[in-house]
Write a structure and sequence with these properties.
- There is one protein chain.
- With about 250 residues, the chain is mainly α.
- Among the domains are: about 80 residues, Orthogonal Bundle (Arc Repressor Mutant, subunit A), CATH 1.10.10; about 80 residues, Tetratricopeptide repeat domain (Serine Threonine Protein Phosphatase 5, Tetratricopeptide repeat).
- It is about 55% helix and about 10% strand.
- It has eleven helices and six strands.
- The protein has a three-stranded antiparallel sheet with strand order 1-2-3, with no helix packed on it.
- Helix 4 packs parallel to helix 7, helix 7 packs parallel to helix 9 and helix 9 packs parallel to helix 11.
């Protein structure tokens, strides 16, 4: 069985979709999948299903939705005070698989195996089908900010993939993607530094320097800080036309 939360909620059993039900049982399942195997209190589940305006007999209604889920997910959903937990096996939840693959990619990158790291990150990022569980109100189903954390981890994986491709001499392949991300996240220094590197590796030194100037101006004017030591060092290497910033493609 597969549980998918990296996009709209989906449950698949042997390649066939599992009919979870309408919005309320789906919200219940989504809240349970954010902490698989962990007890989620009844109070939290009531909020996940009804938000700030639950019905008078919310607990009784919640039990009815639990029964519906148990009918389509037998032996998965169990009661343990003060709430319920959903049993999910290794490899069944796409978010957990994403964590596993990105961890393996970092291990390969740490020993210089950038090709394997990029392949693992491609597989990890391929699990994403959109914004995680965006059909639900995050404030209702996710009090702990787990969805926002997943989005941050996805962006970090994109950055790590770009760094791997740069190490393989494939800077041109990531310029467009990085430029679009810098436009969406103008204060994210890591993205700007990667774009600088990719532009320089593509023979566009002037554009790389312009990215640095835009970043520095924004940081100084809006936050009152200079770019980090690492970004300033990269800027110097671009100015000095460091040949190691543009390795031969492998």
């Amino acid at each position: 069985m597969e549980f998918r939360i990296l996009g709209p909620l989906e449950v698949v059993d042997r390649g066939e979709p599992v009919p979870v039900g309408g919005p309320k049982p789906r919200a219940l399942l989504a809240a349970l999948l954010l902490t698989p195997g962990t007890v989620v209190s009844t109070d939290r589940l009531v909020t996940a299903v009804w938000g700030a305006d639950p019905p008078r007999d919310a607990v009784g209604a919640l039990r009815a939705y639990v029964s519906r889920l148990r009918a389509v997910l037998p032996e998965r959903l169990r009661w343990r005070a003060p709430g319920y937990a959903l049993d999910v096996a290794d490899g069944e939840l796409d978010a957990a698989e994403f964590h596993r693959l990105t961890g393996l990619a970092r291990e390969r990158a740490a020993v210089g195996d950038h090709r394997a790291a990029v392949d693992l990150l491609d597989t990890a990022l391929g699990l994403w089908r959109g914004e995680p569980l965006d059909e639900f109100d995050a404030a209702d189903i996710d009090r702990d900010g787990r969805l926002a954390h997943l989005v941050d981890l996805r962006l970090a994986a994109v950055e790590e993939r770009a760094a791997g491709l740069l190490a393989l001499g494939r800077g041109r392949a990531v310029v467009g993607e990085l430029a679009a991300l810098v436009e969406r996240h103008p204060d994210r220094e890591t993205l700007a530094a990667l774009l600088m590197h990719a532009l320089y590796a593509s023979g566009r030194q002037a554009d790389a320097l312009a990215v640095y100037q835009d970043l520095r101006r924004r940081l100084v004017e809006e936050l009152g800080v200079e770019p980090s030591d690492a970004t300033r060092a990269l800027h110097r290497r671009v100015l000095e036309q460091d040949p190691t910033l543009a390795p031969v493609e492998t």
